[in-house]
Amino acid sequence: MAGSGNSEVKLLGAWASPYVARARIALNLKEVQYEFLEEQFGTKSELLLKSNPIYKKIPVLIHDDKPICESLIIVQYIDEVWVSSGPALMPADAYDRALHRFWAVYIDDKFVPALFGMMRAPTEEAKAESKEQALASLQLLEEAFGKISKGKPFFGGDTIGYLDVALGAFVGWMKAFEEMNGFKLLDDAKTPLLCAWAENFCNNEVVGAVIPETAKLVELAKVMQARFKNAPPAN
Amino acid sequence: MVASAAVRLFGMWASPAVRRVEWALKLKGIEYEYIEEDLSNKSSSLLEFNPINKQVPVLVHNCNPIVESLVILEYIDETWKENPILPVDPLERAKARFWATFVDVKCREESRKAFFMEGEEKEKAIENLQVQLKALDEELEGKKFFSGDHIGYTDLAVGWMAFWLGVAEEAAGFKANYDVKFPNFSRWMKDFLAEPVIKDNLPPREKTVEFFRAFKQLGSCTKVNQK
């Protein structure tokens, strides 16, 4: 059941949101034609409020007028619907799938709050704590990559998989924070596998088109820090 | 039937996340070895199988550990095909996963706050919880269970609320008033708890209330580590 026209598949999102990037990367990998409806920063459209009344957040995928919410759920949905288009995002083996799902939950639970915690931290102490947690998370992800990739370039093996999308969508923001804070999150010495992985991921054509330029994210981060001290990024 | 040694579950008797996994295993008729953990003195096996968050439940299948109860549920469904708990249709699957994460992240957060906090913060948490219960109530309109005529993934995911919400209310002295305000949800709670697989696999109520009462008194220092 492939999407045949632009109107069948819509994605409500924003250019800077890493959660939206997850959905866009998955759609692109599966060569799905879709209409991207950009939400304006600071406002929520009627369509968004109608499609996602519980969370009122982007991304929302609208397929044949049916909304699907939550970025990781959207990625799995895309993988399951456009099953014959492009390589599978989820691994074939049930245990490997469990590993991908576990680490995706870990990323959302532990890594992402720490990453954005560095931007939102009200004190230097809180900032340092977030930084520690972010680095510790990446160290665990480095080890996980070693086991899961089995020597291949991606968590998904030879091709980009679910966990690659889950983490990779944040690489733009990781680079932005590195630049803003003057230290490396991905370090050749401490996380060499993830460094190579990030490069491979960003070099992929469909990914490169989605991940925003570091300079633009840095600019946005400065605006956000000044104006909305406690505003979380879109989910 | 799988030989019991091949499937092991590390758990703790009062933990809703652990029961959730047991319900799934029993629904599928999977034999397993259950290992009770003392969370104040975790076994070396648990720490070896789950070094990341050192929590229960951990399902070990053919020596491979699987962690996070919702991840375990999907693993169980994909490995043992009889009595499927997730729907086949991708949109229905997306909806099932949506409600499961809503309950696990949002409802649990507000329930925790209502349980541990006092005064204004407690009142606010109860208010938020009721908004969430309303959403669940509406989702149940015209359905016996979240998954339809029979219990499935979503019911197993929301299931902790059928028993442990009442326990939390009694232990911490608050009321979410679902029996009055949310008739569909209230009816679902009763129907869910009456299902044989569920009814025969719940912790003893008084003992659980006592446990959570003591847990609340300790504050959040000794966290019951479970997901």
Structural account:
The complex is a heterodimer of chains A (235) and B (227). By secondary structure, chain A is an alpha+beta fold. Chain A contains 10 helices and 4 strands; from the N terminus they run βαβαββαααααααα. Chain A has helices at 18-29, 46-51, 71-81, 94-120, 124-149, 162-168, 171-181, 192-203, 205-208, 214-227; strands spanning 9-13, 35-38, 60-63, 66-69. In chain A, a hairpin with a 2-residue loop joins β3 (60-63) and β4 (66-69). Chain B is built from 11 helices and 4 strands. Chain B has helices at 16-27, 44-49, 69-79, 90-116, 119-139, 153-158, 160-172, 178-181, 183-194, 196-199, 205-218, and strands at residues 7-11, 33-36, 58-61, 64-67. Chain B has a 4-stranded mixed beta sheet with strand order 2-1-3-4, covered by helices on one side. In chain B, α1 (16-27) runs parallel beside α3. The mean pLDDT of chain B is 93. Chains A and B meet through β4, α3 and α4 of A and β4, α3 and α4 of B. Chain A: Its EC number is 2.5.1.18. Chain A: It catalyses: RX + glutathione = an S-substituted glutathione + a halide anion + H(+). Chain A: Belongs to the GST superfamily. Tau family. Chain A: One of its GO terms (molecular function) is glutathione transferase activity. Chain A: Pfam families: GST_C, GST_N.
Question: Which features would summarize this protein structure in a list?
Answer:
heterodimer, A: 235 residues, alpha+beta, four-stranded mixed beta sheet, 10 helices, 4 strands, disordered N terminus, B: 227 residues, 11 helices, 57% helix, globular, glutathione transferase (chain B), Omega/Tau-like (chain B), GST_C (chain B), transferase (chain B), EC 2.5.1.18 (chain B)
Largest sheet of chain A: 4 strands, mixed
Largest interface summary: A-B, 21 and 22 residues
Principal-axis shape of chain B equals globular
User: Residue ranges of chain B: pLDDT <50 for 5 or more in a row?
Assistant: none
β-sheet strand percentage of chain B: 5-15%
Give the SSE order of chain B as H and E letters. EHEHEEHHHHHHHHH
Low-confidence stretches of chain A: 1-7
Task: State the total count of DSSP E strands of chain A.
Answer: 4
What does the radius of gyration of chain B come to? 17 Å
State the end-to-end CA separation of chain A. Answer: 28 Å
The averaged pLDDT of chain B comes out at 93
**Spatial gap, N to C terminus of chain B:** 27 Å
Largest sheet: number of strands, sense, barrel closure of chain B:
4 strands, mixed
